[in-house]
Amino acid sequence: MTGEIQKGSITALIGPNGSGKSSLLSLLCGLTLPTTGQISLNDELLTEIKRSDLAKKLALLPQSNPVPATLTVSDLVTFGRHPHRPWYKKMAKEDKEIIDWAMIETGINSYSERLLTDLSGGELQRTWLAMVLAQNTDILMLDEPTSWLDISHQLSLLKIVRRLNQQYNKTIVWILHDLNQARQFSDRAILINEGQIVNQGNAKDVINAKDISNVYQTPVKMHSLDDLQILWPEEQV
Ligand SMILES: Nc1ncnc2c1ncn2[C@@H]1O[C@H](COP(=O)(O)OP(=O)(O)OP(=O)(O)O)[C@@H](O)[C@H]1O
């Protein structure tokens, strides 16, 4: 089945553990090569785009990142500029402006000189997001960006990403395990099961009780809460 990510949209990759979401994201980023099929970006085959050029078009926030002990917040965000300047060149005014912008957009500018090891989980995740943002790409790929965050920090991060999409027309592809959040914060969804795309389209259509029950092998119902519709497991303990 052919899958499509629409420019300027937020697309959620959803599916059970081990269904192939991270593998698909890795393929979309050119980190792994497809054994069959093709992936193209704006009509150009991904395999024909130089890695250094690809890094100017898309940025990936992986699922887990080791925390370098001696680095500060601004050091890490500066790494985001790497694809845009050779290691031997000093940072230009434009690099500094983009780094400052990324830190302001993610709300981390007030602690830019703190060590990464001194940050809370929520602060650290926003710092990683700022680093990815400093890469200044049109496309952001985020692998489970809200895992390990409490509900308030999850919402804060989801809102930052949605603002980046709406204000700067960033194309977002993210993996989210919370199906209600995926439904609420994404325009589109791709439902994956056992390495296959089961359904794709408008997030509100794809994330429906019937398909989710089937794919996750867990009966769920859709409930209305004010104007919000939420999925809830049918069986309560
Ligand atoms: N490097 C690899 N070599 C071999 N098999 C792999 C490799 N990476 C992942 N897999 C397998 O591919 C399948 C899909 O894994 P993947 O990590 O893409 O799933 P996922 O949907 O992202 O899962 P989760 O929600 O648990 O993160 C799994 O069965 C996994 O064991």
UniProtKB/TrEMBL annotation:
Gene3D superfamilies tied to this protein: P-loop containing nucleotide triphosphate hydrolases (3.40.50.300)
One term of GO molecular function: ATP binding
Superkingdom to which the source organism belongs: Bacteria
Keywords assigned: ATP-binding, Cell membrane, Ion transport, Iron, Iron transport, Membrane, Nucleotide-binding, Transport
Entries under InterPro entries matching the protein: AAA+_ATPase (IPR003593), ABC_transporter-like_ATP-bd (IPR003439), P-loop_NTPase (IPR027417), Siderophore_ABC-ATPase (IPR051535)
Residue ranges of every copy of the ABC transporter domain listed in the record: 1-219
Annotated membrane topology: Peripheral membrane protein
Compartments in which it is found: Cell membrane
Tagged with keyword Transport: yes
Keyword Iron found: yes
Protein's name according to its UniProt entry: ABC transporter ATP-binding protein
Source lineage: Bacteria, Pseudomonadati, Pseudomonadota, Gammaproteobacteria, Oceanospirillales
